[in-house]
Amino acid sequence: MTKARRGRRRQARTGAGAGTSGPAREHWRADGSPKTRFPTAADANRASLRFRLELGADLDPYQCRLCSGWHLGTHRD
Ligand SMILES: [Zn+2]
Question: Deepest in the core among 42, 66, 67, 76, taking most CB within 10 A?
Answer without folding.
Answer: 66
